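Here is one chain, start to finish.
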Amino acid sequence: MKAILALENGTIFEGTSFGAAGTVTGELAFNTAVVGYQELITDPSWKGLFLTYTYSHIGSYGINEEDNESDRPQAAAVIATELSRLHSNWRATESLSDWLARYDVPGIEGIDTRKLTLIIREQGSLRACITTELSAEEAVAAAKAAPTLAGADLATQVSTAAPYHWEGESRAWK
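Its structure:
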């Protein structure tokens, strides 16, 4: 399915939808990691952001719920150059696309993430819209109308409702 990524500055990228279909707005950010896409998507520090992967190919090892950093995806959307259609890790329980769809998180692939990253580096974190429903002009208008994350109280949105005690082994370096 065709998808559009529209930036508040009027830049338009056309790609292919994965994950959930529909329309979502958020702020652009990028990450240069080669592995750990699931951990990044579920990391609360990405709340409300469109996570752009500069690495060319994501999704190859699928999703394993044991590797989540929180109880659900926190990124508002995922942007990739190419999504793997197959996953091959023996621990995987589903594909990245199916997992994102289950949580109503859209993704777009076929984007020149190098160009997008340069835009972010030069202009800062821009508001954006990913859509499978709107025209390019409507998507730009939606990006311009989207709220910014400046001053947002995101900690209350990503924190646990109550304290809990961890009985497992620490992952911290010793």
